[in-house]
């Protein structure tokens, strides 16, 4: 079925007059009549009723007119859709994140991206452990991930967006709960509730390094899957915990968060596969400088 036949039929259906339709199409009337006849033969039913006085649509013609117009619109819109996709104006970005401590940046990024690319669908995947995020990224299950630096894995690029100070989570009645900050020397023997040591969480390596610098290792009494559970068990008196300062919005009763003096800030970055051709992803990457600036003044957030 040729597009020119569809255009001819739609024109005849709008004019209900072959002479006027032929004038609109800038062709003579006999070839137009032949096109409509061939179209009816191809469809297998009569689309028009012709008399010496008038032309009218059959019931089949009414139904065919609706679909013919839709097909012609689709043909007209296809080049624009292709150009929009190529420029990152449309498409899909699958974005993973590792936990509630990245929620603030996730919200800011989502809002900013929707403002700049309202036609792009941003699919949020998570929460997922940092190590698993890298695996999903490598396996093309997500296009980008908010994760803690450093990012292990080859062929991955990352852009740091912000840094979060590490705070010590203590039960409200703990002997150190009124301190303005806590040194590692003060908590060497404290029981610790930790993220799993085998899931690639960036904070785990950071905490172990801080203990190692003081000639010891954390006395982990329980490993739990997420930051909120760490805070819950700290509130229950199971032990102390180490979390990014961005966890303060979780507001777990009976838990106080005090800055850790001897632990460096934990960077949060967006990571993606190097060379990924997805134009919508590159539209997000182009916004990262602006997003990083909106995360707050300076490199470190308190």
UniProtKB/TrEMBL annotation:
Keywords: DNA-binding, Transcription, Transcription regulation. It holds the Pfam family LysR_substrate. Coiled coil: none annotated. Residues 1-58 form the HTH lysR-type domain. The keyword Signal does not apply. The keyword tRNA processing does not apply. Belongs to the LysR transcriptional regulatory family. PANTHER family: HCA OPERON TRANSCRIPTIONAL ACTIVATOR HCAR, TRANSCRIPTIONAL DUAL REGULATOR HCAR-RELATED. This is LysR substrate-binding domain-containing protein. It comes from Streptomyces endophyticus. The lineage of its organism: Bacteria, Bacillati, Actinomycetota, Actinomycetes, Kitasatosporales.
């Amino acid at each position: 079925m040729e597009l020119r036949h569809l255009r001819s039929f739609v024109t005849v259906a709008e004019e209900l007059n072959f002479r006027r339709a032929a004038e609109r199409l800038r062709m003579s009337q006999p070839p137009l009549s032949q096109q409509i006849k061939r179209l009816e033969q191809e469809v297998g039913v009569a689309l028009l009723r012709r008399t010496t006085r008038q032309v009218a649509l059959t019931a089949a013609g009414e139904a065919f007119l609706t679909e013919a117009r839709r097909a012609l619109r689709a043909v007209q819109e296809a080049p624009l859709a292709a150009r929009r996709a190529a420029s990152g104006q449309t498409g899909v970005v699958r974005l993973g994140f590792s936990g509630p401590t990245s929620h603030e940046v996730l919200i800011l990024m989502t809002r900013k991206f929707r403002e700049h690319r309202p036609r792009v669908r941003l699919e949020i995947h998570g929460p997922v452990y940092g190590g698993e995020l890298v695996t999903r990224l490598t396996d093309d299950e997500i296009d980008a991930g908010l994760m803690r630096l450093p990012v292990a894995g080859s062929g991955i690029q990352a852009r740091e967006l912000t840094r979060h100070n590490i705070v010590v989570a203590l039960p409200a009645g703990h002997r150190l709960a009124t301190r303005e900050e806590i040194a590692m020397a003060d908590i060497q023997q404290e029981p610790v509730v930790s993220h799993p040591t085998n899931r690639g969480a960036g904070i785990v390596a950071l905490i172990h390094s801080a203990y190692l610098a003081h000639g010891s290792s954390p006395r982990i009494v329980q490993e739990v899957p997420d930051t909120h559970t760490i805070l819950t068990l700290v509130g229950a008196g199971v032990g102390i915990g180490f979390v990014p300062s961005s966890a303060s919005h979780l507001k777990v009763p009976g838990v106080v968060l005090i800055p850790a003096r001897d632990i460096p800030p934990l960077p949060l970055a967006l990571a993606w596969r190097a060379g990924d051709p997805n134009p919508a992803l590159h539209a997000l990457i182009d916004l990262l400088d602006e997003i990083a600036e909106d995360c707050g003044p300076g490199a470190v957030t308190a």
